[in-house]
Amino acid sequence: MNMIVAYDIADERRLARIAKIICDYGVRVQKSIFEVTVDSGIFEEMKARVEDVIVPEEDGVKYFPLCGRCAETVEIIGQGIFTDPDEEYYVY
Is residue 50 included in any domain, yes or no? Predict the structure, then answer.
């Protein structure tokens, strides 16, 4: 599944940890926005790792699923990069 992950983290230490976690699964396209392509099992793993770090009263993480057809219509204006959804990512 293709998705956009966006977050707003109040604490700098947690912010760095969340960015590192999500980077294990996808590509950063803006400061607090990642493009991620994972199956449902890996998605649940990523969410669990994120939930272990955030403080829900202070932080927010949103997952926006994109259908395949929607992902193909993404337009980039200005700075940005195209990320290949077929590229493989490895979680260490």
Answer: yes
For the chain, residues with pLDDT lower than 50 are: 89
Q: What is the per-residue pLDDT for 79?
A: 67
**Residue 63 domain-assigned (yes or no):** yes
Do residues 7 and 60 make contact, with C-beta atoms less than 8 angstroms apart? yes
Whole-angstrom Cα distance, residue 87 to residue 2?
12
pTM here is 0.79
Report the domain count for the chain: 1
CATH number for the domain spanning 57: value is 3.30.70.240
